Fold:
Amino acid sequence: MKAIALCRYLAMAAAMVFCLPAQADETCMSPYIAKIQGQEDYVYVWTLGVEGIGDEQDKLVTIDTRPGSDTYGRVVGSLSVGGRNEAHHSGLSDDRKYLWAGGLDTNKIFVFDIHTDPGKPVLHKVITDFVESTGGLVGPHTFYALPGRMMITALSNNVDHGGRTGMAEYNNNGEYIATHWIPTDADLMGAVKSGKLADGYGYDVRVRADLNIMLTSSFTGWSNYMMDFGTMLQDSAAMQRFGHTMVVWDMHARKPLKVLDVPGTPLEIRCAWDPDHRYCFTSTALTSQIWLIYEDDAGEWQAKAVADIGDPSTIPLPVDISITADDKGLWVDTFMEGKARYFDISDPHAPKQVYEKTIGSQINMVSQSWDGKRVYFSSSLLGNWDKTGDADEQYVKLYHWDGNELKHQWTVDFYKEGLGRSHQMRFGAYALYGKRPAGETRLAAVVQ
Structure:
């Protein structure tokens, strides 16, 4: 009974977080993470090392985002981790004191201390036994905070380096707890299939804690994501090795409930914040569509395509997406076009594109502030998938969004700075830890 009461309490607490007002932070964060109010002070960029550029190592790059600062819009720190690991995604712990970041090739996990001095992160811990501890997971991808825990999705396995995979659960001390394999046709683990397939592939994870629901999406395995992009496109066997499903889980029990057919490789998952909005969105990389994952009137979770992204026949390759805090807008980046598109999702069953802008020759990640006024973009997808020659632009750019137009504020050129390929961004703020740099009096707040 105590366990049931605790679960109910946590769900209620998370639902309250959904309703709390905030003015900054990223809208893709876990509801369990302490959230910033006010202006973010720094953006931390997990960056791929490139042979022949700078020290050639993966690194955590810190950019000053404090308006009025002498170093506003400039790199103020670069912390190299040794070697190249195919640096990819990162995530904050629930107390926001640590930033976890993974390498898709070496399977190393780097845990950075960002609370002792938010302007100068330090490397706190390196986890090197991910594959062995988890029973064969390969490619740590999404790092998603749960109370006192970190849920880590993987992209592959150490048997055939294909897409069959699962999730690993760690505590905040970096100690392994459990592996949760994704259901397959051969082993549904109690889940039911909504359609034809249970492929066992993994990619992203998101939680609707108030509904006790966890969702996972799917991508491809090590043998594909470490292959040259052009070579892979010409390899018919490789092109068959992509995921086409999403899984609905009982969050508290960590049990799969339903496997949804979502053809075309669903990547990032972004869930509505309003407790009355029982739905999430994803985009499919290969078919260039927005999909709605929603609870129907009977309480069943369903999936359906609701909008095209650009011209799907040209394979614009949708990558990152970002939902606005009021659930009315959705940013969608398309890698091949270098474009950011904004969709009106006031009717989630019928999104409508209302704006687009070319950000660069290529684009990957998007991070927007909670108030929607600041939108950051970065450029790198994967080391072997980025464009080449002059089209291989590597940047972080900030734009201000007034509801009608993106207005450029600044650009950090990562190649010019000798840093490498800029991938995922996370926000930091002094106010979370009750400290400020000498001479600063501006205050912000944090929602716990």
Q: What stands out?
A: The two ends are 27 Å apart (CA to CA). Confidence is low (pLDDT under 50) at residues 1-23, 441-448. The longest strand covers residues 137-146.
